[in-house]
Amino acid sequence: MTSMLEFISRRSPIVCTGGCVATSQPLATQIGLDILKKGGNAADAAVAVAAALNVTEPSSTGIGGDCFCLFYKSETKKVYGLNGSGRSPMALSLELLNQQGFNEENPLPPMHAHNVTVPGAAAAWVDTVSLFGSKKLNLEEILQPAIDLAESGFPVSEVSAFQWNTAAYKLQSPDNKFGADLLINGQAPQHGQLFRNPSLARTFKDLSLHGKPGFYEGRIAQAIVQVVQSHGGLLDHNDLSSHSTEEVQPICTTYKGVKVWEIPPNSQGIAVLMALNILENFSVKELGHNSADYVHTLTEALKFSTSDCQWYCADSAAVPVPTKELLSKDYSTKQVKRIDTKRASEGNDHGSPFEVGSDTVYFTVVDVHGNACSFINSNYKDVGTGLVPEGCGFTLQNRGNNFSLSSGHPNCLAPGKRPFHTIIPAMATNADTEDLLCSFGVMGGFMQPQGHVQVLLNMVEFGMNPQQSLDSPRFYVEYSKRDQKWHVYLEDGFPGKIAEDLKAMGHVVHWPIVGHDRKLFGRGQIITKGDWWRSNEIFSNWSKVWWAGSDPRGDGCAMGYCSVV
Fold it and tell me: What is the value of pTM for the model shown?
C-alpha cells in the first residue's frame, strides 16, 4: 500500500439552511443527514454518526473507547457538556504496578491490558440521546443505520484502509484470539474492499434494546472482563456496572468577542483556552498568516499552555484542578512576559497560576432548529490495545496509558480515576449575545489543542471560511523527553523559507511533512452559523445559512440540506 497521499484538489464550503453534518467518512455523514430528515435533532444524529464511524473507522474509534460531547441548545442559548470517559479499575494501584516492575522510568507497554479503562462511549451515547435528543426517535431507530452498515457491509475508504493496515499487527497477534473479527483472511481490508462486522451489529442491537445494562452487564460485560483478565488486566464486573457519564459545566474564555467553549479537565481542552488568553495579547493578524513570526508566537504560547496542561490537567473528582486560576487573564499576562518574540524558549516547566490568584474521530452536527452537537469519540492509539471481546466486534481502548506513574503527579494512576484525556470537542459563541458562531474540532492526540487554536484563528483573524480554515497547512509542536527539546513539525505547504527562519530563531524544525504522515496534524470538521468570519465584526452578516467544511486529510465530507423553517 502506497505511503503517499496527494493533496491536489480543492473543495468549496457546504452552504445550506436545514441540517448539516460534517464527519471523516461520507457514509457516516449520510447517516447523520438521514436521522435529521427523519425528525431527529443534532444530538440524535451525532450518536448515529458515532456508531457508523465505529463500523467504518475501527482503527480510530469505537464503542470500546471514550467520548465527549458539547451540545448547544438554541432555545436557551446555552452550551451543555458530557464527560463520557471511563475510569481505571478499582483493583489497579500504583503500588501494584510498582510490585510488577512498572514505574515512571519503565512504564506499561501501550497495549498492556492494565491500560484498559472502562469504555465510556456506550453510556454517553445513551445519555446524549436521553438528555439532548429530540424524543422523536428512540435509540433503536438511531442505531439501526449503523447496524445495517455492519451487517450488509461497506467499501473501506482510502485513509481508513491505510490506518487499518498500520494497526493490523495488534489484531494479528497470536494471543488476541478474536482480533481476526476485524480482519479479512487475517489482513486489514484494502481500499474499496467490502467489510462486514456482524458481531458489532449484535453489540449495537444489545445496546439499542437494553440501554446501558445491555453493554455494562450481561454478555458484553462478561466478554470484556474475560479478555482483559486473560491478558493480565484487572477490570471487573463492578467496574463496568458502576460506570456513569458525568454532566459537566463546559469551560470557556473570550478571544476578541468570541467565546470559546471546551470540556473541563480531565480533558485537555483547557490548553486551548490558555493559549488563546496568551495570544489575545498579541497583534496576531499583523504577524501574517503562517509567517515565521506567526508560527513562532503561536508555538511559544502553545508550549506554555501545553506544559501547564500536562501537569495540572487531571480527574477533578480525584484531585483539585486549578481551572479558574489557569484561565485567569492575569495569569495569561504573566505568561506573555515569558515569550521572547525573536527566540525560541527551552524547557517544559509548568507555570504557577496560584501566584496570581491519538487516533480519534471528531464530527459535528447542526439541525434545522439551530441546535448543534460537537462530538468526539476515540480508542486512543489506533485500535487501542487491539483486544477484541468475544462476539462483540470492537476493540478496547488504552486510555490508561495517559496516566502518570509518578506518585507526586496530579494525573498519577489511582483506583477508579479518570486519566488525562486528549480528545476535545469545541464550540464558539458570540460573547455578547450567546448566539452560536460555530461547532468545530480537530482530532489527533496532543495536536488537538493546537489544531483548535489554528483553525479558529484562521477564521477569526484571517477571515477564512470553514473549508479554507481546514485546508490551510498546520504545524505541531512537541516536547521530546529523548533530547529534552521542543520540536516543530511543518506540514507540506509551508515554504522552505519559513522553516529556515524558524531554525534561525532556535527552533528544531522538521519540514516538510507529507503524504500519510500528515495524520500528525489531525483531521477536523467545522460548521458555522452565518458568515461572521468574513468581517472583523462578529455581530454582522448574520443569516440562516450554515457553512461547513471537512478536513482534506481524511476521507470525509460535509453535507447538508435546505429547509424552510
Answer: 0.96
Kindly give, in sequence order, each residue whose CB lies less than 8 Å from that of residue 341, ignoring residues fewer than 6 positions away.
Answer: 293, 296, 297
What's the CA gap between 308 and 348, in Å, rounded? 9
523-559 per-residue burial string, b: 16 or more CB within 10 A, e: under 16:
bbbbbbbbbbbeeeebeeeeeebbbbbbbbbbbbbbb
Residue 542's pLDDT is what? 58
Query: CA-to-CA distance for 379 and 170, rounded, in angstroms?
Result: 13
Q: At what angle do helices 448-460 and 292-312 cross, to 10 degrees?
A: 140
How far is 522 from 445, CA to CA, in rounded Å? Answer: 8
Give the β-pairing of 246-248 and 78-84: antiparallel
Q: Is 429 a catalytic residue?
A: no
Q: How far apart are CA 399 and CA 523, in angstroms?
A: 20
Sign of the four-CA dihedral 17, 20, 22, 26: negative
Cell of 340: 521572547
Rounded Cα distance between 307 and 353, Å, is 12
Cβ atoms of residues 359 and 59 within 8 Å: yes
CB 437, CB 417: distance < 8 Å? no
Q: Per the residue annotation, which of 253, 360, 395, 422 is the catalytic one?
A: 360
Helical H segments across 121-197, by residue range: 121-132, 139-152, 158-171
What is the C-alpha separation between 417 and 86, in angstroms, rounded? 8
The percent helix, strand, coil of the chain (3-state, each to 5) is: 40, 20, 45
Q: What is the pLDDT of residues 186-241, one digit of tens each?
A: 999 999 999 999 999 999 999 999 999 999 999 999 999 999 999 999 999 999 99
- Residues 6 or more apart whose CB falls under 8 angstroms from that of 353 comprise 308, 312, 322, 325, 326, 328, 331
Taking a C-beta distance cutoff of 8 angstroms, is the pair 129, 143 a contact?
Answer: no
